[in-house]
Amino acid sequence: MDKPTVAVVGIGATGVVLAAALLTTDPDVFLVDPQPGLAETLVRKGLGVTGEINYEVPVKHALSRVEQLEEHRPDVIFVATKTFHLPRVLKELEGLFRPGMKIVSTHNGLGTEDVIADRFGPESALRMSLNYGVSLKGPGQVAVAFFNRPNHMGGLLPGARQAGAALCERLTAGGLDTVFVDDIKLFVWKKMIMKCTMASICAVTDMTIKEALTFPATREIADACFQEALTVARAKGYDLGEDYLDQALAYLEKVGVHKDSMCFDLANRSRTEIDFLGGKVVEYGRETGVATPCYAVMTNLVKTVEDKALKQGVAR
Predict the structure, then answer these.
(1) How far apart (Å, rounded) are the C-alpha atoms in residues 73 and 309?
(2) pTM, 2 dp
């Protein structure tokens, strides 16, 4: 693929960083987000990223609807929305999809690449595991709290290597170090066991990660959830090794002063990504015959709190 035309769908916190890195080496990247007025703001003000990564880049092409990409014939589409928006985005992409197009899931969660593969075929699906933490400060403006380099990208079929490796080179050239790996699901599991476990606990208790790991009662819940998730991962073919938990806890200590993003979702009375986090561990556990009682309880608690929050506000 010779300099593919690239689009980023979803210009929230994660999408801003991805788009800024891509725009650094190619000003003709297309940005898409349906938020009213955002496209005009992005073109007028550009993207700004501060903290562990810094960008200040102009934006030439910003659109408010996925359908508007049709005339531009993108070869690669990064989807950086919340996980619950993924099915809608893929439905919108049906009208412009063509053989050879690559769709890259950059979501938090388990199995998002499989959702893409189910709709467009495994040869079209790529997945990124992002290793940076970011918060949105305003339209097109974000702060990066940490970046544990590099990010990882992979496909579901061996034939994805050429296109995927080229995208990794492009992101790295733009300052967002990314490497292509042969088994992306392994890297997703390594990150998501941490995310799936701590997101629910932090969301229900409104604690930071550090607080939840330090307080004995929530630490006991976390330890039980970690063991359940590791057992499910093994049942799915991914044994992360004896040292994984020690490494995971060391990683969490670095970012532990922050609240998980699910805390902010509930505070803002927005939908959470629980179905692709704790909910997916429970789903995989049922598929493989692995009991996940702690995960089931935490997932149901999040759904209960989420339902109450949505009834009190406006679902986003």
Answers:
(1) 40
(2) 0.95
